[in-house]
Known about the structure:
This protein is α/β, with parallel strands linked by helices. It has one domain: Histone deacetylase domain (Arginase, Chain A), CATH 3.40.800. It contains nine helices and seven strands, in the order βαβαααβαβαβαβαβα. The chain has a seven-stranded parallel sheet, with helices on both faces.
Amino acid sequence: MKPVKIVFDKSYETDYRTASCEVPGRVSSIMDTLSPLYETEAPQPCSEDDILLCHSEGLLIVEKNDRSRYDVARMAAGGAIMAARLAIEGTLSFAVVRPPGHHANPDHNWGFCFFNNMGIAVRKILSEKLIHKAVILDIDLHFGDGTDAIFHYDDAVRVLNIQSSTRREFIQETRSALKDAGSADILGISAGFDQYELDWGANLTTGDYHEIGVIAGTYARDFCSGRVFILLEGGYYLPDLGANALSLLTGVAEGVDGK
């Protein structure tokens, strides 16, 4: 059975300046569910050079003007890097990070995102030649325009944004997209939970996240040597956020282990 670790830092609960719905309780609710079940590892903040792997110096300078937000955004990207490295070492990892990142473009950001956590993590391990090819699966309600823009002309990274608006179509699109993705050295999952039936998307059930996880984990087992990591993106219905995160994580674990 593949080991599982949660990447988390208390700074993710910082009440920094952002939208009213993007609250510290998002990560707290997930950790209340996951921390009793899995080992937790604390990351280090990413460096400015790491940020510049994906973003312009102008965006970096703008974000440094809000120091509390900047510090936690660096820690979120650092958590993403740690999750990717754990996956390379053979551990299934879930970085319960905040702020999210998939709307952070090379030279601008929006949608509660400041730096692109997934982009920085994948570019970091590519630059270190720990991998040569990656697939990113984004299951958030909203199109991950930042991640798509970062890797749009990069043949080493394929970004799959799943955008179907019904349960069965969403699951089938996930299956089809991964089937067509081919082999890679690692799978990164941008895990937004705002497609949930009681969240903004009013679509997926808790059980659907498990099924999506099995599909993703099976793909990682068959085409990525079992290397897979998960990063938190959206998800705003706090009462069930932990259950949905656990459902996805256990599904991925079952897929990777071939259960």
